[in-house]
Amino acid sequence: WCVPLKSVYVTFPGDVIKNMTDIQLADEYLKRYGYIDVLQKSGLQAVTSPSKALKKLQNQFGLEETGKLDQPTIDAMKQPRCGVPDIRN
Amino acid sequence: YQTFAGDLKWDHNDVTYRILNYSPDMEATLIDDAFARAFKVWSDVTPLTFRRLFEGTADIMISFGKADHGDPYPFDGKDGLLAHAYPPGEGIQGDAHFDDDEYWTLGTGPAIKTHYGNADGAMCHFPFLFEGKSYSTCTAEGRTDGLPWCATTADYDKDQKFGFCPSELLFTFDGNSNGAPCVFPFVFQGVKYDSCTTEGRTDGYRWCATTANFDTDKKYGFCPNRDTAVIGGNSEGEPCQFPFTFLGNKYSGCTSEGRNDGKLWCATTSDYDTDKKWGFCPDRGYSLFLVAAHEFGHALGLDHSNIKDALMFPMYKYVEDFSLHRDDIEGIQYLYGPKTGPDPTPPVPQSTTSSSIVPTKSTTVSTTVHVDPSKDACQIKEFDAITEIQKELHFFKDGYYWKTSNKGDRKGPFLISQKWPALPAVIHAAFEDQLTQKIYFFSEKQFWVYTGNDVLGPRKIEKLGLPNNLDRVDGAVQRGKGKVLLFNGENFWRLDVKAQMIDRGYPRFVDTVFGGVPTDSHDVFLYKGFFYFCRESFYWRMNAKRQVDRVGYVKHDLLKC
Q1: Distance CA B403, CA B1 (A)
Q2: Residue-level pLDDT at B5
Q3: Who has the most CB within 10 Å: B89, B147, B206, B340?
């Protein structure tokens, strides 16, 4: 009875919050809220490193500025929030 | 705090707003109230005023929508992103959008205002007892018509107070049917429907016809969500079906199995594996008031703050007793300046030609008194005093008063100075002596006694035996003939009206005699045999057995807003 249950994750139809990996979540979050400029992809601006973007985000949310995708940062990204970007171009 | 680049702000202080549609999660009046309170957060600290428009283009257009809702920034389903708003300007600028895949409440679970029944529209009380069984949701138990209902006190068996819960059988919202209930079955494009449907729409909102045939009559409305309905998923508005089968296992309650986000869900048919119909189980939801106050901050020109306790911090956090953070105040006052002086009072021009809004005393010519129509009792959060005079409940605020009859008709605003010219603008308490029909008014350290049009006073309240350091009387309650209880904060005194003197043995502590009511009530009064203790926009009602049997909204239940 003490054997852990095997969990099966299902992608529910119509569920727009997909079962993303933490890296996918962070990537989308940093772009959506302005920490990484989406124009970077087209090569119009110098690329901001993910580490720099994460530090910016950690600074905004009062977290330790590690520049790494640590657990407190992932937890912060999963919090309900306003859709207005934090950083503007 | 931060402002938007270029310090975007409105170039006028009389900002208008319009509510374009409603969420099925909450009663329209609760939504109106949440938005009005959210605007007041900002108008309390700036010279800004907010006026609601019901048609045309307003500065701030407010709407609920799901996923792709007509702007370049789609919502993302339940949780995550809750709402967004645009900085001041023309067109979409200034507008506020709320994700209707969220569960909108007052922040602490279902906020269900009842209809009909015998509880005067009070909120449901969960859990409540009915025939010895406890209910945490609305139920159709005990009824044959399927209408969900709830008790508005903890014990229906004892108090017998109830009302009906929102359902499509009771009313619809928006649409073109003036709130008429659904008619089932109804025909849409030749197909019969026995329940609300999202067919024919791309926005996921559930609707129904309000006649038997939509194809011929084109009459429809949107279905309010029942409190038992699931949120989001692909079955919004449908109830959970227990037990249901998921991956071969049976579940008789909501589960987080199959998800890595820990959210509770259920199937809305008995077999998820074949039907794939599901939704999230109702939770505490998000406070529409708090989220709106934040979004309106953007609509007025504030960007996100990095101070965690500020309203403009981007993350949602529920707080029970909200007050604006210093950072938010500094931000908005940087843009618009501080509020200066009291609210403007309208001029009172007089003429001798037209009819009167306010009944005047026996003068030979009719006097026109123009009362500012924007003095809307329903927009007032906290009244200076409330009392029953000649069987009508009177609400006093800043030189005006309103009254409601037993039938619930609301009249006003009237000018206090017209009816009782000796009184100051702010009345802190009043009562009508049941023996003599004299009306006593209290304001700060003085009181007046009106007998018809004759007035005595002002006199100092210490003449009644009240302590000379008492700043005011906040409430008055008649206790039998010739005795009145006078309240101030956590103390009360008993006045012998005939002797015009406080009885011995007082003050006494409010909480030793009236347990369970706020000890910082700013209005205390007697109405229909109940004591009412008011704090901000809420009241605590106490029955003759000194039990608090209801907590409700002053404006909904007493003012009938």
Answers
A1: 43
A2: 86
A3: B206
